[in-house]
Design brief:
about 0% strand, mainly alpha, about 160 residues, 5 helices
Length: about 160
C-alpha cells in the first residue's frame, strides 16, 4: 500500500514537471504560430489538468527553461507509472487491503484508463511535434521562394 502511495506521488511530481514544461512552451510565440503545434499544446494542457485531478501535486518546480525533448521522457515515464499503479491497485483490491481514501469508483477507473490511452496518443503526436521542431518548421515567418528586392518588384509592375 505504501508502494502505491509512493507511485502516485511520483506520478504527480512527473505531471507537475510536464505542466511546467507545457506552460513554458505555450508562452513561446514562434512555437504557437503553427496550428498543429497549438492544438498539441492545448491537448497537453488538458491531459496535465486531467491527470492532476487523479494525482494532485504539492511540489514546487523551478521555472528554469526546460528541455523540449523531455516531453517524450515524461510521457513515457507517466505511462509506465500508470501501468504499475494499475497493477498494484488491482492486486491490493483483490486482497481487500485498500484503505477507503484510496478506493476508486468505476468512474475514476474509467478515467484512469482513458488517461492511459490519451498518454499513448500524445506520445504519437509528440513524434510529429518533435520532427517539426527538428526540421525548423515552427518559424512564424514561413516564406515560399525567394524574396524579391524592391527594384525587382517595381519593374514587375
Amino acid at each position: 500500500m505504501e508502494k502505491l502511495r509512493r507511485e502516485i506521488k511520483e506520478l504527480a511530481e512527473s505531471n507537475a514537471r510536464l505542466g511546467v514544461l507545457i506552460d513554458y512552451l505555450v508562452n513561446e510565440k514562434n512555437l504557437m504560430t503553427s496550428k498543429s503545434n497549438h492544438i498539441f499544446m492545448l491537448d497537453m494542457q488538458d491531459y496535465v489538468a486531467a491527470l492532476k485531478q487523479l494525482a494532485p501535486s504539492d511540489s514546487e518546480n523551478s521555472a528554469t527553461p526546460p528541455d523540449i525533448k523531455q516531453i517524450n521522457h515524461l510521457l513515457t515515464q507517466q505511462y509506465e507509472l500508470m501501468k504499475i499503479i494499475q497493477r498494484d491497485y488491482a492486486r491490493l483490491e483483490l486482497q481487500d487491503k485498500l484503505p477507503e481514501e484510496m478506493k476508486f469508483d468505476n468512474h475514476k477507473k474509467k478515467h484512469f484508463r482513458r488517461l492511459q490511452v490519451i498518454n499513448q496518443l500524445l506520445l504519437q503526436d509528440n513524434i510529429f511535434f518533435q520532427s517539426m521542431l527538428d526540421a525548423n518548421k515552427i518559424s512564424g515567418n514561413i516564406r515560399i521562394g525567394e524574396r524579391k528586392s524592391w527594384l525587382q518588384r517595381l519593374l514587375r509592375r
